[in-house]
Amino acid sequence: GYRFGSRITAEVTYDYLWTYDEVSHTPLSGRPAHTLTTSVRARLPWKIEVYARARVVSHAFVDAATTSPGYDSLDLRVSRPVWRSIEAYLGAINLLDVRQTPGVVGDLRPPLGRVFYGGVRAAFPWEGSR
Questions:
Q1: Residue 14 contacts by C-beta under 8 Å, 6 or more apart in sequence?
Q2: Contact, 99 vs 110, CB < 8 A?
Q3: In terms of C-beta distances under 8 Å and separation of at least 24 residues, what long-range contacts does 3-10 make, across chains too?
Q4: From the centroid of its chain, how far is CA 33?
Q5: CA-to-CA dists, residue 102 to 37, 63, 105, angstroms
Q6: Angle at the Cα of 55 from the Cα atoms of 79 and 96, rounded to 5 degrees
Q7: By CB neighbour count within 10 A (0-12 exposed, 13-18 middle, 19+ buried), where does 108 fall?
């Protein structure tokens, strides 16, 4: 990870997954060869924290006749302490709304598409401070 001052942190990861079935002489099914993930966490004024993550996933071999398409995704989360050790947050997963094509066998993209969420997180007094 990289730190830009005291408020911004960024990370970049790359996964290369080369898989091969020595019996059938084909790649293993459902394993994308390349995944690039980047994330940024920023602490803004008024104790607001923003977290964003972007992923680029390459196509994946399914079988001799099928290849699952690659895709991009973007997640976002905003949070803020509201009282003592209680934090409220809102977020979205897969903001680009990438999803499987219904009825297509071997499509390994996310099944749900865009998902929004919100909640409250609290630490109990016996858990210690953050």
A1: 34, 35, 36, 37
A2: yes
A3: 6/43, 7/42, 7/43, 7/44, 8/40, 8/41, 8/42, 8/43, 9/40, 9/41, 9/42, 10/38, 10/39, 10/40, 10/41
A4: 17
A5: 26, 19, 9
A6: 75
A7: buried
One-letter amino acid of 84: R
Which residues are CB-contacts of 61 (< 8 A; sequence separation ≥ 6)? 26, 27, 28, 29, 30, 31, 67, 68
Please write the tens of the pLDDT for every residue from 62-120: 888 888 999 999 999 999 999 888 999 999 999 999 999 988 888 999 998 999 999 99
Strand boundaries in 2-123, DSSP class E: 2-4, 8-16, 34-43, 49-57, 60-63, 66-68, 71-83, 86-93, 115-122
pTM of the model: 0.83
CB count within 10 Å of CB 128 equals 8
